[in-house]
Amino acid sequence: MNAPARFFETAAPIAYGGPNAPSPLGFRWYDKDRVVLGKRLEDHLRFAVCYWHSFCWPGGDPFGGETFLRPWHHGDDALALAKAKADVAFELFRLLDVPFFTFHDVDAAPEGRSLKESVANLNAIADVFEKKIETARVRLLWGTANLFSNRRYMAGAATNPDPDVFAYAAGQVRAALEVTHRLGGRNYVLWGGREGYETLLNTDMKRELDQLGRFVSMVVEHKHKIGFDGPILIEPKPKEPTKHQYDFDVATCYGFLERYGLTKDVKLNLEQNHAILAGHSFQHEIALAQALGVFGSLDINRGDELLGWDTDQFAMNAPELALAFHEILKGGGFTTGGLNFDAKIRRQSIDPDDLIHAHVGSMDACARAFLAAAGMIEADALTGPVAERYAGWDGPEGRAILAGERTLADLADRALETGLDPCPRSGRQEFLESVVNRFV
């Protein structure tokens, strides 16, 4: 099967047109070559289009089936359909002029009747990707393996009670990691979609955590064996689809990585939708990952706060994004990571060009938010007041306490002898909220 000669109505790459761009398909804020804080905007944001939601999701939901009717979703020759899908994918990458894309193994290539056949299919499509990458501008941000959709993974992959499932998952991950390495991927993601439990009545939690720790350790060992120098990324995910995930949030993941000695090689890929489901803000999860030294990359989407599941909508909330980017800039920005559009258009958005509008709108929202965050950094608008609030800890006594040069008794005696009576100082929250509004 060949891809449609022209799947999208739009033919020319989307260009920057300025804040008053007349076309709805012109970037108003995302000027990729604009230099901000010493780097091009494109190099700061590192946008990536995801393969699965954009080209594999048929538009179904728990109460209704396919609405998109993509031509590569139906046919007898699975590899031919996968190649047609790749043609359309790389056309979208060209139209959006994005620097990166991401994929799962079974999104890019059809799953075979055996692991051997699935690996062969993946390598066949990797050959297609490799040839397309030679003449395209787009590169691979990361690859991953789908260890949650198939029936065999109903009780998890690494945490499965059956070691044969664990071994099968290892086969999938090795193939996907090696293909990611071959294609020049900057990172590799371990997505634990079902690494959790439904009920403790049939679960040995310690055993499952040890299994998961060993699995991630084996992936790290193989990464070094093949010379892959990018980080392994884990994505915190609280309760979807499993009742309780072992990778619940940043704090939980950090504890897990520390316990199994993985913090050097494994970082976190964060998502707003998952942060909300875990009872946190996106800003909180980014700030904590930065503080703990495990920040890696972002899936850039948003959830519906009125719904209790992962709706994966395109990120359009510039004020929320500005605070997220402010945390990223405070930490020095991305290294190997970037902004992956793990987002899907709504099932009523059935026109092919809706995919383009969604990405353009979200890229513009991110760019607008990033410029606001950069403005706050340049003006020291938030970092200045925060530094002033903690200034005492940068003084001689504060430094001595943190350096271990004071005991509990030393501090207690000083407080008693000097008659310390500290005067509380305002946190100025409302003032700082109004400062943020001046920039966004």
From TrEMBL:
Subcellular location as annotated: Cytoplasm
Active-site residues, record numbering mapped to chain: 104, 107
Positions of Mg(2+) 1 binding: 235, 271, 299, 342
Cofactor binding: number and manner: Binds 2 magnesium ions per subunit.
Tagged with keyword Glycoprotein: no
GO MF annotation terms: magnesium ion binding; xylose isomerase activity
Alphabetically ordered keywords of this record: Carbohydrate metabolism, Cytoplasm, Isomerase, Magnesium, Metal-binding, Xylose metabolism
Protein name: Xylose isomerase
The organism of origin for this protein: Methyloraptor flagellatus
